């Protein structure tokens, strides 16, 4: 994987997290009604969650520029996606809109696998393993 590709990957991850964080922060009701409808709506909680995505966006952006940040940032992001997937699996049937629970589990699970694969490849690259 080339340096340019890795930068694009981390900048894409930063953009995704920034976009998700902005949606949660500036339009919390929209996020809730579209894909986050688990339990009662709580604007403060939705905005609290946005802060985590803003932090992930900043970390991914720094990782795009500083290679030493890549493995740690990707490891943390992979763990977050894994735990997020497990949480959605536990509550899959509790979504206020019936499709969101199962779709979230599948989407988060696939993203977790992709992140884990990228982490594995990046670790091999740093170790000099072909």
Low-pLDDT segments:
none
Biggest sheet features = none
How would you sum up the global shape?
globular
Radius of gyration: 16 Å
Multimeric state: single chain
Q: Give the terminus-to-terminus CA distance.
A: 11 Å
In percent, how much strand structure appears in the residues?
under 5%
Would you report the number of β strands? 0
Q: Count the helices. How many? A: 5
Return the string of H and E elements.
Answer: HHHHH
Coarse structural class: mainly alpha
Quick summary:
By secondary structure, the chain is an all-alpha fold. The protein has helices at 3-26, 28-34, 43-65, 70-90, 100-127. It has one domain (3-127).
What does this structure look like?
By secondary structure, this protein is mostly helical. The chain has one domain. Helix content is 79%, strand content 0%. The protein has 5 helices and no strands. It has helices at residues 3-26, 28-34, 43-65, 70-90, 100-127. Helix 1 (3-26) packs across helix 2 (28-34). The protein is globular, with a radius of gyration of 16 Å.
Descriptors:
mainly alpha, globular, 0% strand, 5 helices, single chain
What's the arrangement of secondary structure elements?
Blueprint (H helix, E strand, L loop, with lengths): L2 H24 L1 H7 L8 H23 L4 H21 L9 H28 L3
């Amino acid at each position: 994987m080339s340096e340019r590709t890795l930068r694009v990957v981390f900048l894409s991850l930063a953009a995704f997290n920034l976009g998700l964080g902005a949606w949660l922060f500036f339009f919390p009701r929209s996020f809730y009604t579209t894909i986050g409808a688990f339990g009662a709506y709580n604007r403060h909680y939705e905005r609290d969650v946005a802060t985590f995505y803003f932090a992930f966006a900043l970390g991914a952006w720094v990782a795009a520029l500083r290679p030493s940040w890549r493995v740690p940032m990707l490891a943390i992001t992979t763990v977050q996606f894994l735990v997020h997937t497990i949480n959605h699996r536990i509550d899959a049937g509790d979504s206020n809109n019936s499709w969101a629970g199962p779709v979230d589990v599948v989407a988060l699970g696939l993203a977790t696998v992709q992140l884990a694969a990228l982490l594995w490849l990046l670790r091999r690259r740093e170790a000099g393993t072909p």
